[in-house]
Amino acid sequence: MNMKKYIIILLTVLFAQGFAQKEVSERSFKLDKKERNGFQIELEIPEKTVIKAVERKLKAWDIKARESKNVYSALAANIPKISSKTIDFYLVVEDKKNTTIVTVAASLGYDLFVNSREHSAEASNLRNLAKEIAEEAKKVYIEERLAEETEKLADMEREMKKRSENQIDMQKENENYTKKIEENKTKMQENQKAMDELKNKIEEQKKIIDKIKQM
After folding, report:
1. Whole-Å CA distances, 42 to 30, 47, 51, 117, 149
2. 76 near 86, Cβ under 8 Å?
């Protein structure tokens, strides 16, 4: 198994253990300073990652939504994935400490927001949308972590290569030093022999000079 596959498996396991996904719940949320009915899911995933997932899914669903402060809206829109009727669609992303809350909602007109009791089909579709966003957020999170961890691995491998090259260079340098030391030992022995011979010649030369002085 190569390192990249290992990282993917590891991240998937860690994600499953550390990022528990809750069920979609129907509850009220504030929109335009009013309480509306919507369908929420809590994700233990960073907000920026969830936003990336949301925008991917909106594009895949061909929902042309406007965004303002993490509120996505598509007014008087035809979205068969949600309803056969013209609707006002809303998707809100909120950061709550270590949790990101995604809320999807739709109005059928006249401030009539979809609820399970009166609009079972549309409500089911909105729940599914929330679940799909959650699944996409998981994928994006793993992609981001994989890219991050793969880059770390690449950095480590680059450092390992550099250190290996340095190790080879130092080994060669040591070998050159060893060779140089042996060469110097031989030269020193030769030099010492030459010095000893010269010392004897100097002594002989001094004796010759002394004899001349005594004439």
Report:
1. 16, 11, 13, 22, 26
2. yes
Euclidean distance between CA atoms 30 and 210, whole angstroms:
120
d(CA 113, CA 121): 13
Structure tokens, 10: 């590891």
Give the whole-angstrom CA distance, residue 38 versus residue 116. Answer: 10
- Please list the residues that pair with 107 across neighbouring strands: 88, 113
Are residues 38 and 104 in contact, defined by beta-carbon separation less than 8 angstroms? Answer: yes
Cβ-proximal residues to 27 (8 Å cutoff; 6+ apart), any chain: 37, 38, 40
Query: DSSP of 68-92, one letter per residue?
Result: ETTEEEEEEEE-TTT-SSEEEEEEE
pTM over 0.90: no
Q: Domain 3-149: which topology?
A: TATA-Binding Protein (3.30.310)
- How many whole angstroms separate alpha carbon 164 and alpha carbon 170? 10
User: How do the domains of the chain map onto residue ranges?
Assistant: 3-149
| Residue 91 reports pLDDT greater than 60 | yes
Confidence of residue 204 (pLDDT cuts 50, 70, 90): confident
pLDDT in tens, 129-183: 999 999 999 999 999 988 888 899 999 999 999 999 999 999 999 999 999 999 9
